[in-house]
Amino acid sequence: MFDNLTDGFDLYLRGSTLFAYLAAYAAGVLVSFTPCTYPLIPITVSYIGGKSRGSRAAGFFLSLAYVIGTSLTYTVLGSIAAVSGGLFGTFQSNPWPNLVIANICILMGLSMLEVFSLPVPRFLSGSHFSSRRGGLIGGLLLGVASGLIMSPCTTPVLGVLLSFVATKQNVFFGMSLLFVFAFGMGTLLIILGTFTGLLANLPKAGPWMVSVQRIFGWVFIAIGEYFLIIAGKFMI
Description:
Shape: globular
Structural class: mainly alpha
Number of strands: 0
Helix content: over 70%
Largest sheet: none
Number of domains: 1
Oligomer: single chain
Order of helices and strands: HHHHHHHHH
């Protein structure tokens, strides 16, 4: 019965593109509430608010341009992972890609649980978000640069997504999945950039963000265990 259950879940994961996109978007939204990225939101919203000069329409489009810029950075990473996916070989019937995914998920989960630390940039001031350029192009370029700066903060989730994309070996799927993930990260930013008054009601950074991070850690470990079970079935 357990084998039938895992077989069905495995087929669902591989066959449901919509599920993959929804999961990537949800992961992006949750990542925006982790200790590494959440403190950046007020800084970025303050920048957007200053450029929009109180206009909601301008704030919306500036926020959207910024998030699209960030999404483009992650889209490039997704395309690289998809193109290099041939290294994984035939995923459906080979235990080794499953073992690779399992170990990546477990390691990234442990890092989210702070068993060990991954290097992340230090955001000590808002200087990373200063820009002489204005308008939508400036917001877009700032988003692209911010995507590069923030990528170490999202390494655990990003590593799992890129590994999954690599097994698919589908460039469009890889690019679009990472775009959706990054757009999920920027959803809160778009809302706050449009309605800057909501910034005052934003929850303060605190232990609750650590709880979100730990939930991610246990979810990744569970996913890693699942792929270990699949790999074991192919080895028998």
